[in-house]
Each structure stands twice: as structure tokens, then as C-alpha cells.
């Protein structure tokens, strides 16, 4: 029996490209993403430009960067437009510097009406119950409240950023606990604040927020964007593992061959990102860092396997002995596809 009835590439895609901006009005139009993306995250691979997050809820020219805590900015060139098959980038070194290598990560949402419930009403939203992904723009209230998400399954990872001002990106992960949060734009250890998620796990209909300034403040007309991810068997996995401090590291079963894995140590450590396109053979899965503008790292750290991933290095950032690590992963292929054929390792 197939794990899922759709192809993962219909809802998530990693793409590599080379920039061509040399001045003037250079642009590139990508029409081969495989779907109309609603969230695009771009980072230079061999350059130190910042991360660029753009989504259809806030608009193509509205940009955030997870390697800084800065407020939303407006730039007509980072990502100029979304289309039904991809997106267009323009005259920008951050997304299109001539000769530089880039990676884009794209997610599809798409449902923009019919959401109801909760005590905090989003000003705009887009979600997809099939893939378990949603985006919600909202105004802070400085009081505990709930947001309806429409995913049908409880989200197990939330990423929240104040767009109206400088404030850290706060992350909820179901294995971190409801009183804790991670900080995506730094390498800080997990911290505690019951005002982040009101010390309450999301349900299959509602996301809970407390009164913390990073997730729900009314001060200065604060506005926010939330990215929510619910697990879908064969497409996404949100969980944790224990390191063993050995080059023959732990195997983490996801139920699919990964296209994307992001890992965070419970203590101080970077947010490591691995994708299925860089180089192409285990263990040469180059890493990026969500919290840094650094160029791509070249440590042989991880194997992408047919039903999960395996750590191949002893770095404390992802494989210290008996330490806890949190991850979120998206599929390239499910372990058993719709044609009932099992996938092989990378």
C-alpha cells in the first residue's frame, strides 16, 4: 500500500541554480518548480548573502531573513513574482548574483478562503490540508488566544516572526515541549516561556498563542507571520533523535527518502539544513545554516536513505553522545510510492 496518494514534488521542491545578475534589469524566470509555490526560501550556496523568505500571504516583494531578527522589508528584485509553475527573481545579489550558486526551497499551500474559528482572526492566510502546510498573517492581541489552521491534523512545528519590527524568530516543535521555544535566527539553546504557545499544544483545529512579544503582542500595532507544519506520512516528519557521538551515527526513520532535513541541538548550536540536490551522492550532502549567512559547509555529515537519514559525523551540532536533536524533514520519494515500488537510497 502506498504511503501517500500524491507525489511529494507536487508540494515541496529543492532547486539549485546559478545567478546571472550583472547590473541593469537582469532576471531569471523559473517555470520548472513543479507547482505554484506559496513559500520560497532562497540562500546563496557559495556566497555570504542573507537568507530570503518570501510568500504569497505577505506578497512577492515582502521579504524576511531567518539569519537576522530584522523586520520585514520591501524589495521588488529579490523575488519579483510568483507564478503557477514557479517564480521570478530579479536584479539582486542576494538571490541572483552573477556566477554564484543558489538553493531555493519551495512549499505549496493554496487554500485562501473558508477558514473559521479561533479567537485571533488572520488578516490573510494560505493552507493545504493534503501536505500539512499553512501560513497565517495576524495582528497581535497581547492576550492568550487561538488561530484556526484548517490542516485537519495538529501542527507539530510552528515558525513565527514579527514582521512589523525587529524580534527573534520563535519555533515550536512538539518534542521541545509547550513551554519552550527555539530561536531560528541564532544558535541559542532552547528557552522557556509559557507565553509563547500558552503552554498548550496545537489541536487538529486550533493553534494556541500566549501573550509573549515574539508571538502575540499588540504593542506598536505588532503584526506577525506564522508558518505551520503538520506531519503527513510519506511526505513530512517532525520528531527528535538521540546522538551517539560516533561516525556510525544514529539512523532516523522518516518513512521516505528526504529532500530536506533541518536539525537543531537542544543546547547551543546552529540550525543545520541538508538537501537532496547538492552534489548528489552520500555522504556528500552539503549543509547550510538557517541562522547564519555563511556559505555552504562541506562536512560529510549525513546520508539520505530510502526511509530516513543516518548521521555520519560526531559534530556536537547534530551527533553528540546521548544528546537530543530536533528535526523536520520533507520527502523526495515516499518509502512506498503510489506505484507500490519501494524507493532506493540516494
Q: What is the count of helical runs?
A: 3
The residue fraction in helices comes out at: under 10%
Question: What general form does the structure show?
Answer: globular
- Beta-strand content: 35-45%
Mean pLDDT: 94
- Terminal Cα span: 22 Å
Low-confidence stretches: none
Q: What would you report as the Rg, rounded to the nearest angstrom?
A: 19 Å
Beta strand count: 26
Strand order of the largest sheet: 10-11-18-13-14-15-16
Largest β-sheet summary: 7 strands, antiparallel
Structural class by SSE content: mainly beta
What is the H-and-E element order?
A: EEEEEEEEHEEEEEEEEHEHEEEEEEEEE
What are its keywords?
346 residues, six-stranded antiparallel sheet, seven-stranded antiparallel sheet, 38% strand, single chain
Question: How is this structure best described in words?
Answer:
- The protein has 346 residues and is mainly β.
- The chain has three helices and 26 strands.
- The longest helix has 4 residues.
Topology diagram in text:
Blueprint: E1 12-18, E2 28-30, E3 39-44, E4 52-55, E5 59-64, E6 73-74, E7 81-82, E8 87-89, H1 93-96, E9 101-107, E10 124-128, E11 133-139, E12 145-148, E13 157-162, E14 170-173, E15 180-183, E16 191-192, H2 194-197, E17 206-209, H3 213-216, E18 223-229, E19 236-242, E20 251-253, E21 256-265, E22 271-275, E23 287-289, E24 302-305, E25 308-311, E26 324-334
